[in-house]
Specification:
about 475 residues; mainly alpha; 2 strands; about 0% strand
Length: about 475
């Protein structure tokens, strides 16, 4: 047996805990049975709620705390030095850590199946069987996302004094609700309509369950990849890119009807992937740690043509950003975005320089967006490579939020369109102006980032 699994099972189970779980479930459901005048339907719903409360609230909390309790107890570093592989550590810690949660919830789930059978239903057949499987999947998926989030936070917190257990739990709870597409529990449950995917219609419940299983697999795989990094295995960062491609294909399948309405144009096929690549670039840069030493090592490996070494040090955001660049260039060159002459003209200071244009075009807007994404990434790196690196992400989020929302809105209200291009993409502005401004900002920020990277490698003798 997996040593990590066996260790967690010994920690989770005791004779007293083995007795308490079925006793608690039996008392609660017996009370519901008596109060509802022996209603099979209400008892089944009560068992379902009991099960979901355990696996979603207690289970996600337990999954989020699996690594945090090891860090707090000072045992995580010794576990990392053991001979266990990344996959053994991942599933041994995850399954073993949540084992008592599922032991407790299993009695409620079995009671639900028994009550359904007693009421003349077939709990493992047809739509009811799919619903029962879906309930199991929701609980397991929420716990997997909580565990995955805790590993993400483990990488970002260098001191490892505390982990965002509550944040990880909320991530799992949110994922449990979002993936099915609706709140599919208890009295909130409703029948999903048929869902079209790449031109074929599938039953809504079955499609939601398959989606849930696919994202569950990605969550567990993501935890395994992060565990490899934590255990100091060399990893080429291809998993996030693979997940991005999966999400893009999945999204295009859902939007296939709209794509066909647009006669299958290049723009229609690539619009959703471009937006997703854009968003996942931001997610990658904020979720992974920005270690200036690692970036210096990556640059040195490239300079020495040590390609495999460079790949193992490659930041996670670079592959997905390169995909964003490729899609953006494709949309710019072949997207076929039509001219939009009805956009409001740019007014205010400098407007005379812009009146030379004959019409407003957005054909280059994807390329402009790519440049602003690069500028934002460089800003995040610049703030993280400073002396107060622990707060770099928070400072970057505040800066970008101010730039894209209140500052953009104020300038738009004042009709200062020429100035807006300094902050964010502005479709009415000429393409060359937007490209020039964004490109200049990228060059300046890249120089500042390189300067801070060089400064981090310089030896500074301590003051006497």
């Amino acid at each position: 047996m997996n040593p990590e699994l066996r260790r967690n099972l010994w920690l989770q189970f005791s004779p007293l805990r083995l007795i308490i779980a079925p006793l608690a479930v039996g008392i609660v459901l017996l009370l519901v049975w008596l109060l509802t005048d022996h209603s099979h339907d209400l008892v089944a719903h009560a068992a379902e709620w009991y099960f979901l409360i355990i696996v979603l609230f207690w289970g996600t909390r337990r999954a989020a705390d699996l690594v945090a309790e090891e860090v707090a107890g000072g045992t995580w570093d010794s576990q990392r030095m053991s001979t266990l592989g990344a996959w053994q550590m991942t599933w041994g810690k995850f399954i073993g850590g949540i084992s008592y949660v599922w032991y407790s919830a299993a009695f409620a789930f079995v009671a639900r199946l028994w009550v359904q059978s007693a009421g003349g239903l077939s709990p493992w057949q047809g739509e009811l069987g799919l619903e029962n499987l879906h309930i199991l999947g929701i609980g397991l998926f929420g716990q997997a996302v909580s565990f995955l989030t805790s590993l993400v936070l483990l990488r970002k917190q260098v001191t490892r004094r505390r982990l965002g257990v509550t944040l990880s739990q909320f991530a799992g709870l949110g994922a449990s609700i979002l993936v099915p597409g609706h709140l599919d529990i208890g009295v909130f449950s409703h029948e999903l309509p048929d869902i079209g995917w790449f031109g074929r219609d599938y039953p809504g419940a079955g499609f939601a369950f398959v989606t849930l299983m696919l994202f569950l697999g990605w969550a567990i795989f993501g935890a395994y990849r992060l565990m490899r990094v934590e255990l100091q295995f060399r990893c080429i960062p291809w998993a996030w890119l693979a997940f991005a491609v999966f999400v893009m294909v999945y999204a295009d399948g859902l939007l296939y009807g709209v794509i066909q309405t647009a006669h299958g144009s290049f723009f229609a096929w690539c619009f959703a992937p471009f937006v997703l690549a854009h968003a996942m670039t931001y997610a990658a840069i904020f979720l992974e740690p920005k270690d200036v030493v690692r970036y210096r090592a990556f640059g040195a490996a490239l300079a020495q043509s040590r390609l495999f070494r460079a790949l193992t040090l490659l930041p996670q955001w670079i592959p997905i950003f390169l995909m964003t660049v490729a899609i953006g260039l494709g949309l710019t060159l072949f997207g076929g975005l039509d001219d939009l002459p009805d956009l409001p003209p740019v007014q205010g200071p400098g407007s005379m320089l812009l009146n030379m244009r004959s019409s407003v075009t957005v054909s280059a807007l994807p390329l402009v967006v790519v440049l602003y994404v690069l500028r934002d990434v460089l800003l995040v790196l610049f703030l993280n490579f400073g002396s107060r690196r622990g707060r770099g992400d928070i400072m970057a989020i505040i800066c970008l939020a101010l730039v894209y929302f209140p500052a953009y809105g104020v300038l738009a209200f004042l009709n200062a369109g020429l100035v807006i291009t300094i902050l964010a993409p502005y479709p009415p502005a000429p393409a060359l102006l937007s490209i020039g401004v964004a490109g200049a900002e990228c060059v300046v920020l890249a120089a500042l980032v390189l300067r801070r990277m060089r400064a981090a490698g310089q030896f500074r003798p301590a003051a006497a």
